[in-house]
Amino acid sequence: MAKPYPLQSALRGPAPARTLGARRGFMAGSALALAGLALGCSRQSAAAAQTGVASAGKPASTVTAAIALVPIAVFSNSGKRLRSERVAKIVKTDAQWQRQLPPLSYQVARRNGTERAFTGPLLGEHRKGVFGCLCCNTALYDSATKFESGTGW
């Protein structure tokens, strides 16, 4: 008798134990992922509470949240680390960010965009000093640690 095609043998008998285990693992993992997604979507973030968005049927005026503090390192203009501080997290709407930032900066800083390679205004910047965040003016890195990757970013 000729050897059966793989499809025919799959239709004849029960699935091997390893296939059943893989299926059960996939189904259990999928159920856990969906449960996690449902739980995550049902919670309200502190940022949404601060902007006055209502939570699960509650009026926006009854939603309260503590102001989130984030740790930052404070540097002098020469790049020397001075101290650590906890400052209030900046929470703004997209409209507020768009008014504050130029269009390309908004896309890069707030929308995970990127500028075209070899076109950035800081590409040839080699002065000594500390680079700061355009959104919050927090020190990011010292010019001495700037890395020339050759990729244009």
What does this structure look like?
This protein is of the alpha+beta class and 153 residues long. The chain is 35% helix and 14% strand. The chain has 5 helices and 4 strands. The strands form 2 sheets. The protein has a two-stranded antiparallel ribbon. Strands 3-4 form a two-stranded antiparallel ribbon. The model is unreliable at 7-11 and 45-64 (pLDDT under 50).
What's the layout of helices and strands?
Layout: H1 6-12, H2 17-42, H3 46-50, E1 69-75, E2 81-88, H4 94-100, H5 103-110, E3 130-132, E4 139-142
Antiparallel strand pairs: 1-2, 3-4
Q: What's the quick description here?
A:
The protein is α+β, with helices and mostly antiparallel strands and 153 residues long. It contains five helices and four strands, in the order H-H-H-E-E-H-H-E-E.
What's the oligomerization state? single chain
Strand proportion, as a percent range, falls in: 5-15%
Largest sheet: 2 strands, antiparallel
Uncertain segments: 7-11, 45-64
- The helix/strand class is alpha+beta
Shape: extended
Which terms would index this structure?
14% strand, single chain, extended, 153 residues, two-stranded antiparallel ribbon
